[in-house]
Amino acid sequence: MRYGMVIDLQKCTGCNSCTVACRAEQGTPAGVHFHKVIKYEFGKYPNAKMKFLPMPCMHCQDPPCQKVCPTGATFIHPEGLVLIDENKCIGCRACMVACPYESRQFLWEIKTYFLGTHPTPYEKIKQRGFEKGTVVKCNFCLQRLEQGRLPACVTTCPSEARTFGDIDDPESEVSRLIVRHRGMPFRAELGTEPSVYYMKG
Amino acid sequence: MAKKKMDYEAMLKSVQSGYQAFESSPYKWQAVDPNASGEKKVQFGLCRACMQGDCATLVTLEDGVVVRTEGRPDAPPNYGTLCPKGNSEIMGMYNPYRIKSPMIRTNPEKGLDVDPMWKEVTWDEALDYAAEGLRKVREKDPRGLVICEGWGQRDTILRGAFGHAFGTPNETGSHGALCTVHYPSGLVHSGYPVAVVDLEYCNYHITLGRSLGPNFGAVPGMRKFAKAIERGMKLVCVDPRSSYEAAKGEWVPIRPGTDLAFLLAMNHVMMHEIQIYDQWFMKNRTNGPYLIRPDGEYLRDSETGKPLMWDPVEKTAKPYNAEFKDIALEGTYTVEGAECRTGFQTVKDRMKAYTPEWAENITTVPPATVRRIAREFIDHARIGSTIEIDGFTFPFRPVSLNVERNVTNRRGGTYADLAGKLINLMVGNIEVPGGCLSCSFRGPIMGPTEDGTSAPQYEAVPRPFKFPPESATLKEFYPHQHTAPHLALKSILNPEKHHLPYTVEAWMSVGGNPIRQNAQPEAYVAGFKKLSFSVAIAFHMDECAILSDVLLPEHSALERVRVTPFYPQHQSMDNEVCGLKMIQYRDPVPTLFNTKHVDEIFTELAEKLGILTGEGGLYDHLNREIDWVDKTDGLNLNGEWKLDINRKYTLEEIYDRQIRGWPYNKSNWTLEDLRQNGYLEYWRPRKEFYLYYYFPDNQTRHPFYLLGLKTVGDRLKENLKQHQIPFPGVPHDDYIFDLYDPVVHWVETSETHPPKEYDLWAVNWKTPYYANDAGNLTGNPWLAEIYAKDPWEANVLLNPITAARKGLMEGDSVVVASRYGELEGRIRVSELFHPDTAGIAGSYGPGTLQSNPLNRVGPCFNNLLSIDDHTFDGVSAGQDTAPAVKIYKKEAGK
Amino acid sequence: MWTWTVNLIALLLSILWVVMFLKQSQAGLIRTALNDKFTWGLYVQAFFFFSALAGGILVFISIVTLFEIDSLRKLAEIGSAVSLGCLVAAGMSLGSDLGKPFRGFKIATGKNFASPLTWDFITLSICGILNLLFLSGIIPGRGAGAMIWAVLCLIAALGFVMIHTLFFLSRVGAGFRSQPFLGLDTLAQSLWGGTALIVLLAVVLKMEPFNMVRILMILTIFVLIPQAGSTIATLTIKSRGAEYKKIIAMDAILLLILILIQIGGPKNPVLLAIGSILILIAVFLEKSHLIRQYQTKPILPLPYSRYEDIPPYSPTSYEWIMSLGSVGACVLVTSIVFYLKPGL
């Protein structure tokens, strides 16, 4: 059983619902996003188009971040997720230097959303788990997976571009899509074996 | 020393250095209610972050604090998905810049940067003060009140009735003057607000100046769009910008503001070069074959008075409803000595001049492209094919061409939309599966008038003329206008020019902010200063609020209870919601500040003014009100459920009566049932969704020859002559009447030939982070963090060739100036723009002294627009959204 | 008198370090100029610098012991003291870079032997222990014990120097931007810097390390070789060329200076001191280049990183003060060792 995701780049229209849903679900502090959408242009006028690359954490199976973590705070969950034990993280940021996908962020400080003001009630509740001085990243919404739900970024996508499931199971929808549409991870040549695949891009 | 900064912070830096600081300390949030501690619950919500406003959500509360808004799984129309705006609604509620209690101004001086020196008062005091101010206006002349609504407050059911009970005809909206897209759909197929594409079946779609869904993140549209693209639909986006949607199809770059020329050229190619039409449709379902006299009127039968058509087999003219062996679509025929052309021929003759080569000079679109697209459009139309839905056979035309505000908003914009309708009519795709569908009431609305043509509906029904005029927005002179806050403004500034027999004394803001969302903010500020009284049902300290005399703070979207019917979708359509009739419910979260629900405010105000109960009161008008869009299908007070106009009702009681009287309430539902389920649905057969169903075959005819325009134009001309007045605000009357021609033709806009140094045109678009300012999206920090990093936001975007030509580089600070105003911004070079374009997204600035700092940053596109009449479209009063501009570097200061 | 002034300054700097460290722990690393794109800055540079020096010195000491070069024995003992000081300074620098410094001991309990930081910790700890053993006098001047100790020193010091090149800074583990000459470069810098530090200290203590100039010259050439090799290997990669050329130029000029010193005044202590200081600065700048070269360019390739704008890194006052503080601590620890071991 290994959780993975495939993202249909033809359906993705770069709206960033996934990024904001992730923020809403996880309550990450200001400036911290577990998910990002890279937007760029392709081609020259008059054949130029917008292109988008949504990037959660890739949850690599051979993760450079886990290799360099000195305290073992970064570990691989039995179901394939790469997670951080916040109590062990000493904030050395070696994992951030190692990650080729810029998936991790360091909590330099916990700022409020409305800069220069006090934290809103939302922040007071949602940000209890965040400690200044540690590294944080996407966890495939493990708290939702445990309830039998899908990650926030997958559920919220209006174009239904994201499919999530067990990529070890050849019959699962995500495996079928990857095979049928020749899904490939981003920067696969680096050999980190990501669990996030892209198709039609 | 370099400091770590987010882009969002960098944006704010410019504010803090540029503006004087407003002396106040940050708001201290109250502690969480101890009774709610440990509580976790989920309730039904309804998003309100865009025009559609119908995405079903789930709102999670922990310890009494809203911690999540997300799509509600399995609930239409969004089925669990939600856009970034909906996901960030929480920040609209926990917004320290909200107005938290009623306040009255004590500083008589007004300005965007002037401290009103608010005095916090109780609700009673504030309502009394507001009622007093309004009473004075009412006693003088009730027409002196302008109620300006907007997308910021679309959860009210009492506003319209309040205005009527007060006695003012002047309800207008801040949103409409830059989005006058309603008339052509109302004229040609009785539709409102717009016409959209049937994405369930469409195989070829041409879209201009609008969004199918992805361009501004409208969830139901995005869902349908993704499926259609996956299915293989071809999309052609004719747009100065290679947009989100263009990324999934073909981009045809076009010079801003020139779509009319493009569409006329397409008409020319279809009529003079390809010459393949849906003959059956044109002959039986349009007035194309009607014979037109040389003076432009229908040739009528002397006995019955019905318009005549020519039978080429019997070689005679007969009334359109007679038996015909065949119908002549084209040609000139002599009848009773008069040389008459068919309607189609009249249009075709006019289109002869509009060759693609002619258009290229105006639009820069290569002629070959125009020809190819027209050809492909016709090829994909599958003229003659049919499809069976629920046992009914429809014509099947899987193509559509749709335009919206960035095409219609300039002089001649109505013609552009109509030119698009002609293209659709020629392939017969109006109101049939796969084609162009209006978003209006689904029922027998498209029925024929006594001339056999489909009845104009909604805004295609002209307002009656009166002189002296009643309406501050000149409905008498612009009888097909959408909303016109800019005209109301000019009535304030120059009432004599508008021949008004009264002065506009008061302004009531209900979720509408034309100061920021219209044009020429300084003019609006001047207008507000002239008023004797202004009241705002205010959410945050925006431009209208800071200029008002009293603030009646309202709930944020999450805190408002709402019961609403489900309207047809505005961006695109497919089977996911085709045929769905629904009532949706928003369960309000506990109120955070000392605010009230807008309808509670209206009720109290009406009561204090003595216009709540009794004849002619608010409830009386509410009883008589019919939903503007969905007519009898909406939530109206029907039959036994009408209100007793002599007693006071709570909002819930009114909702309950609306639900019980709903025509689709087949199960005796009540408000309680709605609360339990969050929504109540009823599915009509899909065949009843396509308006063709109600008047199939030749039972109604869409106007191809647009006599409706001529009729209204002629009548207006007559009225002006009768009262011996020129049309207000324009150089000469023909400037307007040139736009009431029954045959669409080329007209120039006010920006077509600007002075030489204005060599670019500025364009604006909505973004997935910003559809309108509901809940102050621009000031929402979650969205701000993302749009600050977005490459195509908050900057002035130029094509690299243009930038090189002007010696501008990425990152340069520039001034963009139209002939009406200017803005400052930073250059970003992008291949996604036509070389003649200066692209500025969204809606930033100007902000006020006391507003969210985020509202003070960014390039303010609306500064470039104009409220001068010569820039309008004469039919819709829509303002030009692509002004001619010049760009220069900030230090140079040319 | 002069020693007391130096020690006083060192003490003050160390105390200042403690104060700033506590302030930084409370406010967070936001007080530095670091950000998510430029995550390692002056602190990590200082860590590399000091640990490189410590490692280099230890190699020197170990060679002196292995080859039983008695004339340099005294120098070796001084070196050991300063090596210990450098290790303490390195530890302080790393500690000030951690987000949660008071959890720092978790490196020891983490037991992730794939991580270069764990190996850093292990090898540097071993270096420290070996230094202490040497300073305590347990290690004899010759014989089996000395040999074993010397070999252990070599392993520890070389091991530490190599760890980053093998595991980490070149991100070989992630399979990209590998730098074939980096190992040699790091080793050379380490030896060069360590030896220069010993020479400097010897001059200050009025010893006469005259033959050291030749060794410094050889080490300078040793440093230039991998740099030249790296430049040739990346001649076609435009993005890497400019910085490296500056470094090569700087080191080549240093070589010239050393040759001039050798020719002109090999016994002149002032010139020696100047030469050593210049070498230390060169090593410090090389470490700065090492840190910057991987972080000033976006991690994601074009076109994804087209709009990324990495502002130049300019350390804040916190970072400078803490780095100076660790220099002060290094001097202080060295002085304490000298004080405790009167033989020096």
Describe the protein's topology.
The complex is a heterotrimer of chains A (201), B (894) and C (344).
Chain A: E1 3-8, H1 17-26, E2 36-42, E3 49-55, H2 64-68, E4 74-76, E5 82-84, H3 94-98, E6 105-106, H4 121-126, E7 135-136, H5 142-145, H6 152-156, E8 162-166, H7 173-180, E9 196-199
Parallel strand pairs in A: 1-9
Antiparallel strand pairs in A: 1-8, 2-3, 4-5, 6-7
Chain B: H1 7-18, E1 40-46, E2 56-62, E3 65-71, H2 84-87, H3 89-93, E4 103-104, E5 119-120, H4 123-140, E6 145-149, H5 159-166, E7 171-173, H6 183-189, E8 195-198, E9 204-208, H7 219-231, E10 234-239, E11 250-253, H8 259-274, H9 279-285, E12 291-292, E13 308-311, E14 316-319, E15 332-335, E16 338-342, H10 343-351, H11 356-363, H12 367-380, E17 386-389, E18 392-395, E19 399-403, H13 405-408, H14 413-427, E20 436-438, H15 485-493, E21 506-510, H16 514-517, H17 521-530, E22 533-538, H18 543-546, E23 550-553, E24 562-565, E25 572-573, E26 580-586, H19 598-609, H20 618-624, H21 651-660, H22 671-677, E27 679-683, H23 707-723, H24 734-737, E28 760-763, H25 781-787, E29 796-798, H26 800-805, E30 813-818, E31 822-829, E32 837-839, E33 884-889
Helix pairs in contact in B: 4-19, 5-19, 5-20, 6-14, 8-11, 8-12, 8-14, 11-12, 15-17
Chain C: H1 2-27, H2 42-66, H3 73-97, H4 106-110, H5 116-136, H6 144-168, H7 182-204, H8 212-233, H9 238-264, H10 269-293, H11 317-340
Helix pairs in contact in C: 1-11, 2-3, 2-6, 2-7, 2-10, 3-5, 3-7, 3-11, 5-6, 6-7, 7-8, 7-10, 8-9, 9-10
Notes on the structure:
The complex is a heterotrimer of chains A (201), B (894) and C (344). Chain A has one domain: 2-Layer Sandwich (Alpha-Beta Plaits), CATH 3.30.70.20. Helices cover 21% and strands 19% of the residues of chain A. In chain B, a hairpin with a 4-residue loop joins strand 13 and strand 14. Chain B is globular. Chain B starts with 6 loop residues before the first helix and ends in a 5-residue tail after the last strand. Chain C is built from 11 helices and no strands. About 3% of the residues of chain C have low confidence. Chains A and B meet through helix 1, strand 2, strand 3, helix 4 and helix 6 of A and helix 1, strand 3, helix 7 and helix 25 of B.
